[in-house]
Amino acid sequence: MRPIGKLDWSLKEMRALHHVVTLGTVTAAATRMGLSQPAVSRLLASLESKLSQPLFERQGRGLVPTRSALDFCTASARVFDAIEGMQQNLAVSNQVETLRVAAPPTFARGFLQQAVALFLEANINATIQVDVRSSPSIIGMVSEGAVDVGITDTALTHEAVRDQPFRKAAMACFLRRDHPLTANREINVAEAGDLELIGLTHRHATRAYIDNLLRSSGHGWRMIVETSTAASAVSFVRETGAVSFLSPFPVAGDLPPEVTFRPLHGGLTHISRFIYPARIGLRPLTRRFMRAVTAVSEHHDGWSEALGPFSGGKREGDI
Questions:
Q1: Residue 165 contacts by C-beta under 8 Å, 6 or more apart in sequence?
Q2: Do 172-267 and 97-168+270-318 have the same topology in CATH?
């Protein structure tokens, strides 16, 4: 095929040539395109003019495509394939996808809402279902495939569930700003004296650690309130003036103005993780949601640290 000039032919001209070559006649091409025979002939003439070379040779009453026409059709087929692929991708992208998420109450007091808003902004055809449950319930839902992804800080032993850690934070002491211990940069239980405490209930894995920590301190700590969520514990700290030992992620991002926190000396490290069904794995939509969650968690860098392939610009395929 000889060099050609300006690439200003149209898709309709390309299709006209393609159909004439593949179907054998202008009449058949016109029928396929829903045009008249003269219209198809004009399209071919226009394309020949733009290519500056003949596309057909007459043999008797028929048309035989030239080498230029055959080469052009081969190249055009790749263009048509690309267009078809784009149309299929657009059709898929226009389908509504639903993502099912489960998270504990501590994550559902602002943090999760921010992540969902960021996710929906980038995935306009997605909808999301959010279940707010306890961590044991979330693990059960994920193992049964009732949700696509869960968030928890509970260590896993369930073979039907896989996990991907995304954040870690050392336990901290939460207290009112007018509490005497706020003068310390770090809270050492052994040096803090006798204090009143807001504790999490025994269903939390960290409760046994806290009990052992207090027993080893040699002081008379008194548990005045036990509650089931970190957010509730923070509210009790504000109202009672007692202290509470909690992971600062994510509760430290939405504290009442009266409450602050200090690092706890020797505090246990909490790992927040995504969990998903082992037999299903991760859908692309799930990966995009996980990226939205990790993006929002970057606002918590002052008291927690990023983990996993969805932080630091790593590829999704690293998971």
A1: 271, 272, 273, 307, 308
A2: yes
Bridge-based pairing of strands 269-277 and 161-170 is: antiparallel
Phi then psi for residue 41, to 5 deg, are -60, -40
More confident residue, 200 or 194: 200
Of the candidates 129, 161, 155, 253, the residue with the CA atom closest to the CA atom of residue 208: 155
pTM score of the predicted model: 0.66
CATH number of this structure's domain 97-168+270-318, picked from the four choices 3.40.50.10900, 3.40.190.10, 1.25.40.10, 3.90.1310.10: 3.40.190.10
Average pLDDT value for residue range 75-89: 76
- Specify the CATH number of the domain 11-93: 1.10.10.10
Write out the two tokens for 125: 């055809």
Residue type for position 47: L
The helix-helix angle for 26-33 and 37-51 (nearest 10°) equals 100
pLDDT number for residue 93: 58
Nearest to 253 by CA among 104, 107, 103: 107
- Assign a CATH topology to domain 172-267: D-Maltodextrin-Binding Protein; domain 2 (3.40.190)
Please enumerate in sequence order all residues whose Cβ is within 8 A of that of 23, keeping only pairs 6 or more positions apart, or say none.
29, 32
Confidence band of 314 (pLDDT split at 50, 70, 90): very low
Q: What is the pLDDT of residue 209?
A: 83
Q: How far is CA 93 from the centre of its chain?
A: 16
CA end-to-end span of the chain: 48
With CA atoms as reference, report the closest residue to 243 among 173, 177, 188: 173
Q: Quick check: bond before 263 cis, omega within 30?
A: no
Mean pLDDT of 200-218: 83
Give pLDDT tens digits for 225-236. 999 889 999 999
List the domain boundaries for the chain.
Answer: 11-93, 97-168+270-318, 172-267
